[in-house]
Amino acid sequence: MITLAHAYIVGGLFFAAASLFSFADTSNPRRAMNGVFWGLLAVSFLAGSQLGDLGNGLLAVGLVAVAGIGLGQGRGETSSGEERRASAARNGNRLFLPALIIPAIALIGTLAAKYTTWGPLIIDPAQATLVSLVLGALIAVATVMAWLKPPLLAPLREGRRLIDAVGWAAILPQMLASLGAVFLAAGVGDQVGRLMADYVPLDTRTLAVSAYCIGMALFTLIMGNAFAAFPVMTAAVGLPIVVQALGGDPARVCAIGMLAGFCGTLMTPMAANFNVVPANLLDLPDRKAALNGVIRAQIPTAIPLLLANILLMRFLAFPA
Amino acid sequence: MLVLLGIGVVVLGFVLRANPLLVVMAAAITTGLAAAWTPDSDLQAMLAALVSTLELFGKAFNDNRYVSIVWIVLMAIGLLERAGLQERARIVIAEVRAATVGRLLWVYFFVRQVAAALGLTSLGGHPQMVRPLIAPMAEGAAEARYGPLPDRERYLIRSHAAAADNIGLFFGEDIFIAIASILLIKGFLEANGIFVEPLELSIWAIPTAIAALLIHSLRLWRLDAHLHRVLTKPGAPA
Question: Which residue of B has its CA nearest to A161?
Fold first, then answer.
């Protein structure tokens, strides 16, 4: 049976390869930083469970320190623009098919592990989606290798090129999840919840759902990131009130709550990579303003959509 | 109340444009220390609080590794990019003989949302698609119809090109079962003793995705009407 532990080995080997390619990349003046960063992440994936809690904490500090000093970005060996255009013309829309293998296997694997007798023999049903995703990615790579016959190391080189482009942001969601755990232990959500309970009426489903969704959007506006807002608002209002006190379904409440946060992302200059970077790239004259053209174009969609999320949560999240 | 200092650190960090990883770590340590602080705690007690905060963070970091496992799909995506996937996407978009700004942006918005729902979040983006392709094509569609554009409308069209990318991405990606936000929710609920499969979460992203599609389609349709009204106003500079 394939479990999450096996998936972590695959991930660890990928990050280890990214680390080795980074160290060897003379086009990147900061190659040592990239090598150490991906190397630390490889250690976490391959041996995290042997490091102990403090060891993992120090590893995270190490990642932060390296990212703080600054990663570079290598050029990476890949095909030329000409080769790509030729391949795009030659292979046509069939190029999209291998990309569809990943979600297809992830979906089929999840369903098979839950609802068939043979599925659990292959895939650990407790982590079916993640294991299936890793399988899907590997099968997609194998398919492209067999079809287009690129060099043997191409998947690792190309993967390294893209993970370098993502850079330190690759571990931001994992770091924010860990910050959520610290917030949880320190009772940050409880405090925000108490503040809200003092000033906001939360005693009916409609009021609680509205407070949670609007709170998600406002908190995201301030923090610039729905991932950072989610653990705080959900621990404050979503989980204790909407789910536990008023009977909401946790999966539906959280899924829609996160999307209410995304409405906030559309309205804030704090979400720099989505709202400020394009304004710079497009030479907008008001790119330095708090409400630049991109944000102004998004607000009239964000506000009705936030309202739609409130209604959807109110009418879908209480199945009983 | 002191534990809310951590939130202040996050806000301050983003305002100062500090590296977000640094901000997160600083917020975690601030929160851990603030939770342990009492008026008569000494340096040693604070050091102990620092160590236990690092332990707590480290345990959570290790437990949440699956949030970062999604990056192994980059091997497959990178291989396809090597074979011209983005060039193919450009050909598909460019083949759309859209007569108007709104229709062109709508096609891009729709393709972006569907692709993101299938996990292809890299088939788009501001540097890769919006600046080199979508914004110029949208401006071109307006110029072909109305002649040279006043600055105001030109920047409005560019802003809408960026907005179509963001909105398509945000309200498509959560349908894919292995996107970071879905895994973050799963991790949060697990820490609270509730176990859900990513599939249960992603299914409930679909109603909002449909709402986003409807609302933004209406907006793009009205954008066309607005441009038509402003740019064909009698007496307007041709």
Answer: B78
Sorted by sequence, the CB contacts under 8 Å of residue B42 that are 6+ apart come out as none
Answer whether residue A39 is part of any domain. no
- A212 lies in the same domain as A284: yes
Distances in Å between the Cα of A129 and the Cα atoms of A107, A247, B22, B65 are 7, 27, 31, 15
| A185 shares contact with chain B (CB less than 8 Å) | yes
Q: Which residues of A touch B11 (CB under 8 A)?
A: 222-223
Q: Residue A60: which of B58, B158, B215 has the nearest Cβ?
A: B58
Give A191→chain B minimum CA distance, Å.
7
| pLDDT band with cut points at 50, 70 and 90 for residue B140 | confident
Q: Give the contacts of A130 (CB within 8 A, at least 6 positions apart).
A: A4, A7, B66, B69, B178, B183, B198
What is this structure's pTM?
0.82
Considering the domain architecture, whether residues A192 and A139 belong to the same structural domain is answered as no
Same domain, A209 and A276: yes
The ipTM, to two decimals, is 0.86
Instruction: List the single residue in B1, B74, B192 with the smallest CB-CB distance to A239.
Output: B192
Query: B35-39, B92-96, B127-131: which has the highest mean pLDDT?
Result: B35-39
Query: Is residue A37 domain-resident?
Result: no
- Per-residue pLDDT band for A58 (boundaries 50, 70, 90) equals very high
Answer for the pair A130, B66: CB distance below 8 angstroms, yes or no: yes
* Sequence-ordered alpha helix ranges (H) in chain A: 4-23, 31-47, 52-69, 81-91, 96-115, 119-122, 128-148, 154-166, 172-186, 188-199, 205-223, 226-233, 250-265, 272-275, 277-281, 293-316
